[in-house]
Amino acid sequence: MFQFISHYKILTTLIAAPLTILIFFKIFLFLPPQNIFNTTRSGIHLRSEIWGGTIHITGDTYFAPWAPLTIEPGTKILFEKNPNAPNTPWTKYADDFITKHNDPTGHTGYNKSHFEIYGRILAIGTAVQPIIFTSAQAKPEYADWDELVLASGSKLDHVEVSYAHNGINVQGNNVSVTNSRVHDSLWSCIDIFSSGNRIDHNEVYHCWHQAIGLKAGNDNIVTNNFLHDAQLSINCEQGAKPTIENNHFEAAPLNPDCGPGTNNTKVDRRPDIAGGTYDGSLIYPSQE
């Protein structure tokens, strides 16, 4: 996400002149989406695309605000990775929890070698043909890739997101994640930094910061989810007060800062695995 901001500033500077802006809109707003099938993707994309088959992500991949990414049912998005860049400083986003655990993914070198997708993503799968976002590795591990960053209006339905660093990062408003499985994230499985979003009828598990983290807004809705085996089921920060209804929590306590919610059920038991690993080392134990 943060690399995207710097690229986007460069892009907006280049098209600052009114005439250039008009030309850009005429060229890109009225072009039909480009069909992309069984290939690789990276870089900045100014035209809408429709993905199908198997797409390999070989670098950070950004879609401009006017260029939504549509993904067809049954598509697999596989994230490649590069070797770690050692001995790099902590990012400014590495908080005490990250530095305390000496988490290698909190260093600047991680973002240079592990990749994300940013944009208005419309990924509508089916129960029979879900859309898969996962590692390209033969033996996938936590944090093999970075995250999905969702702009306003994104919709994920019947998708599976696994083996990411930070799973799904909701930056825009009016985003929905429904009927999906999000699991095996070294940090959060779903983080929300905006308002008017809906997280509904999902299974979310093996998330070693929190299953769902709310960082803003009082009108986000978290309902009918099965959240289990995570440091926290739902964590609320910076005054976030979401609607939390009809969820089932197992081995994943609700942060009291969220309030009690309504009609939620809870089962206390031991987590089913030891916690979150990176390169074979246990970084975040499930019980401390």
Structure explained in plain terms:
- The protein has helices at 2-14, 18-28, 96-100, 108-113, and strands at 34-45, 49-63, 69-71, 76-79, 117-119, 121-124, 131-135, 148-150, 155-157, 159-162, 168-170, 176-178, 181-185, 190-192, 198-200, 203-207, 212-214, 221-223, 226-230, 234-236, 243-245, 248-250, 265-267, 275-278, 281-285.
- The two termini are 30 Å apart.
- Strand 24 (275-278) and strand 25 form a beta hairpin.
- The strands form two sheets. The protein has a 23-stranded parallel β-sheet that branches. Strands 24-25 form a two-stranded antiparallel sheet.
- Mean pLDDT is 92; it is low at 1-6.
- Helix content is 12%, strand content 38%.
- The chain contains four helices and 25 strands.
- It has one domain (33-285).
- It has 288 residues and is mainly β.
In short:
The chain has helices at 2-14, 18-28, 96-100, 108-113; strands at residues 34-45, 49-63, 69-71, 76-79, 117-119, 121-124, 131-135, 148-150, 155-157, 159-162, 168-170, 176-178, 181-185, 190-192, 198-200, 203-207, 212-214, 221-223, 226-230, 234-236, 243-245, 248-250, 265-267, 275-278, 281-285. By secondary structure, it is mainly beta. The strands form 2 sheets. The chain has a 23-stranded parallel sheet that branches.
- Count of domains: 1
Amino-to-carboxy terminus distance: 30 Å
What Rg, in angstroms, do the CA atoms define? 19 Å
Helix content: 10-25%
Describe the sheet with the most strands: 23 strands, parallel
